[in-house]
Amino acid sequence: MIFILTGTVGCGKTSFLRRLLSFLNADGVEVSGFFAARVFDADTLAGYDLIEIAILRRHPFLRMTEEAGRERVGPFFVDPAGTAKAAEIIRLSPPSSLLVIDELGPLELQDKGHWPAVAPLLDEPDRNFVFVIRDTCLVEFQNRMAGRPSKTISICATRNVGALAAEIISHGRQG
């Protein structure tokens, strides 16, 4: 099952996800993957790190500063080491775990970024996912996932983290 958390930029998708992870952790759900955390230089947004959920380790991912060999995504530049680490986290995720990816966006729609690591897992039986996808990319991702069981949750329309956690837990127990 694919659970998609969606909303506009800045509406709190990652904050919602972090609260969801707390509920799942409290219930003993095995979770793998990563979420994004803002990085600041003084009071200025400098970029994002990936936080590896299993061990809460930070990995540099997006930065505002341009460096040779870094692909531009909006105002950010992608750290190739961060992309490689994300792929490793995805590849090593146990099939029994709930794989969380924050977020799938424009790069993945070009078959880059996290997509090469995620795509082969989508057809694994009994694999469950939580994907964070901004609203501007949602329709294209839903088209890519056509035929796979999924549920889309607009976090701007609902803030009921507990109900979603209960649904994910229930689905995981049913197999």
Explained architecture:
- The protein has 175 residues and is an alpha/beta fold.
- The protein has a single domain (2-37, 87-174), classed as P-loop containing nucleotide triphosphate hydrolases (Rossmann fold), CATH 3.40.50.
- The chain is 31% helix and 33% strand.
- It is built from 6 helices and 9 strands, in the order βαβββββαβααβαβα.
- A hairpin with a 2-residue loop joins strand 5 (72-73) and strand 6.
- The radius of gyration is 15 Å and the shape is globular.
Q: Which key features would you list for this structure?
A:
globular, 9-stranded mixed β-sheet, single chain, alpha/beta, 31% helix, 175 residues, Rossmann fold, 6 helices
Q: TL;DR of this structure?
A:
With 175 residues, the chain is α/β, with parallel strands linked by helices.
The shape, in one word, is globular
Q: What is the overall number of helices?
A: 6
CATH homologous group name: P-loop containing nucleotide triphosphate hydrolases
Helix content range: 25-40%
Instruction: Determine Rg (CA atoms, Å).
Output: 15 Å
At CATH level 2, the architecture is: 3-Layer(aba) Sandwich
Task: State the distance separating the first and last CA atoms.
Answer: 9 Å
CATH topology group:
Rossmann fold
Helix-strand makeup class: alpha/beta
The main pleated sheet reads as: 9 strands, mixed
Adjacency order of strands in the biggest sheet: 5-6-4-3-2-7-8-1-9
Mean pLDDT: 90
Q: How many individual β-strands?
A: 9
Strand content: 25-35%
Count of discrete domains: 1
Order of helices and strands: EHEEEEEHEHHEHEH
Q: Which CATH top level class fits?
A: Alpha Beta
